[in-house]
Specification:
By secondary structure, the protein is an alpha+beta fold. The chain has 9 helices and 9 strands. The strands form 2 sheets. A 6-stranded antiparallel sheet has the order 6-7-3-5-4-9. The termini are far apart.
Length: 282
């Protein structure tokens, strides 16, 4: 059955890869067995998703060697996938899409989540695009029906891949793109003014973030502004206060705000904005 499905995906132009399956003990068919932290979810191939293929002869060779393999599909080529692992994530995605879930192909995962397929946009993976939602694009893959999850449940189609792939709406595309990075293609004559403008813009973005995107928006803003703090162009205390006030206005709790700011600002300060490098970008 897995081989038949793998060949069908390949006919749709989707690169396929064999993936380890869960074993009867609840572990994985890999060497780590019950100690595996990703049972039934990681590739059998030496170079992982980079070896994925839509060549039927190659796929038949793989499944003759591993007839019980789960089916992996490389994303970012024929489709992108919103990987939703919670009811909160499903509601957040629905809210972002204007109150309706996409009408394209949809999978119920073995772990109780959902995969929603979209036309590929050319962007890479995004972890925690929303709470409970990851984005699988260029450089990613998903496990597909009829694969088996470590829980014992199968991945199954709620709406088959023969359904047309929906285009990503502007709201989703904007979230995946993220805020404009500090480094750009235009020379920055006054870095301190640029940093100040970025602080005001990011604080406004955080304050206006819709439900389901607020924490991610705050994290992205903290990282972007942390780069200016690391370069000495913004004050850490002032930046923290501005983002704290904006996140509070958006409705985030104090503990969540503190944790997100600590993580985002720390990561940004480790990659400081370089005005001299930016001036010489053509």
């Amino acid at each position: 059955m897995s081989l038949t499905a793998a060949l069908a995906y390949a006919r749709h132009g989707i690169p396929v890869l064999p993936v380890h399956a869960p074993d009867p003990r609840g572990g994985c068919t890999c060497d780590r067995g019950v100690s595996c932290d990703r049972p039934g979810k990681h590739p059998l191939l030496r170079h992982g998703l980079h070896d994925a293929s839509a060549d039927p002869r190659q796929i038949e060779m793989w499944w003759s060697r591993w007839p019980g393999a789960n089916v992996g599909l490389r994303t970012g080529v024929a489709m992108d996938v919103a990987d939703v692992d919670s009811v909160e994530g499903r509601h957040g995605l629905c809210h972002l899409l204007g109150g309706e879930l996409p009408a394209g192909p949809q999978v119920r995962t073995g772990g109780g989540g959902w995969h929603f397929w979209f036309s590929p946009m050319g962007y890479g993976n995004r972890v925690r695009l929303l709470p409970g939602v990851d984005w699988r694009g260029v450089g990613g893959y998903v496990v597909a029906p009829p694969s088996r999850h470590s829980s014992g449940a199968d991945y199954r189609w709620l709406r088959s891949p023969g359904t047309a792939l929906p285009e990503s709406p502007a709201s989703l595309r904007a979230l995946i793109e993220g805020p404009p990075p500090p480094l750009g293609s235009r020379p920055i004559a006054h870095p301190a003014r640029y940093a100040r403008a970025a602080l005001l813009a990011e604080a406004d973005r955080v304050a206006r973030a819709p439900v389901g995107t607020r924490n991610d928006t705050l994290n992205r803003a903290a990282y972007a502004l942390g780069r200016f703090v690391g370069a000495g162009l913004l004050d850490l205390g002032e930046t923290t206060r501005e983002l704290t006030d904006a996140a509070g206005f958006a409705g985030l709790g104090r503990a969540e705000i503190r944790a997100t700011l600590r993580s985002g600002l720390t990561a940004g300060r480790r990659a400081p904005f370089d005005p001299e490098l930016n001036r010489h970008v053509a």
